[in-house]
Design a protein that fits this description.
Strand order of the largest sheet: 4-5-6-3-7-8
CATH architecture: 3-Layer(aba) Sandwich
Shape: globular
Structural class: alpha/beta
Radius of gyration: 19 Å
Order of helices and strands: EEEHEHHHEHEHEEHHHH
CATH superfamily: P-loop containing nucleotide triphosphate hydrolases
Number of helices: 10
Length: 229
């Protein structure tokens, strides 16, 4: 697929989870989501149009013209993807917490099943448990179903730990492997990026003459530390 930002065309040759960062990145998200039939877009602040979760999902299926033979089965599958009970469909939206409303936004997109997902601030209002559930399912969508997912945030930790490639929007556009980007001191300084915690750990180890590889997963980093102690 091809991602167009400003006058730059970025070619994505295989399914990926791509980070998007930079000043006013929000202005480009609507443009990226222009093809409503193949792109699902979860905004930072979402609106809901019905009183109940079931009705909201049904309305969204009708709006996106989803061809579903068994609606109940599709809804059950989507609920399972986020470890939610079937009874969640009966909930009143006004009674949902902020985190549950964010989960509902994910359900609306997952039931649509687009080729490309664009998510602004993916973990907004989610607790740690649901952060992990959501990102694990996004990875499954990429690996098993060949989806391309764009995660937009200026939180370096979120982008570093959860993406394969990263786009930075500034006066120019940069598109690079996420680990290489955040381990490059020149890029960090040029674009005034915060160094992710996991990268900072490896850099501090280097200063103490300990060669620690860059990892995006805390558990893998700890294994590397124990191997080098």
């Amino acid at each position: 697929m091809e991602i167009k930002i400003k006058d730059e065309k970025i070619k994505v040759t295989k399914p990926s989870i791509i980070g998007l960062m930079g000043n006013n990145y929000e202005t480009y998200l609507e443009e990226l989501s222009h093809n409503k039939r193949s792109v699902g877009y979860i905004k930072k602040n979402e609106y809901y149009y019905t009183n109940y979760v079931y009705d909201e999902l049904l309305l969204f299926m009708n709006r996106c013209k989803c061809e579903v033979k068994n609606v109940a089965k599709r809804m059950e599958k989507v609920l399972d993807s986020l470890s939610l009970p079937y009874s969640f469909l009966e909930r009143e939206i006004s009674d949902l917490s902020k985190g549950e409303k964010r989960i509902l936004s994910y359900l609306r997109i997952f039931i649509f099943n687009p080729k490309v997902l664009i998510i602004d601030e993916p973990f907004k209002n989610l607790d740690y448990k649901y952060e992990k559930i959501v990102i694990n399912y996004l990875r499954e969508l990429k690996n098993k179903y060949n989806k391309t997912i764009i995660i937009a945030s200026n939180n370096s930790n979120i982008i570093y730990e959860n993406t394969n490639k990263t786009i930075i929007i500034d006066k120019d556009i940069i598109f690079k492997d996420t680990i290489k980007l955040f381990s490059d001191n020149e890029i960090i300084e040029k674009y005034n990026l915060n160094i992710p915690n996991l990268v900072m750990f490896s850099k501090l180890a280097e200063k103490k003459n300990k060669k620690i590889k860059y990892y995006q997963d805390n558990r893998e980093l700890m294994k590397e530390v124990y191997r080098n102690v």
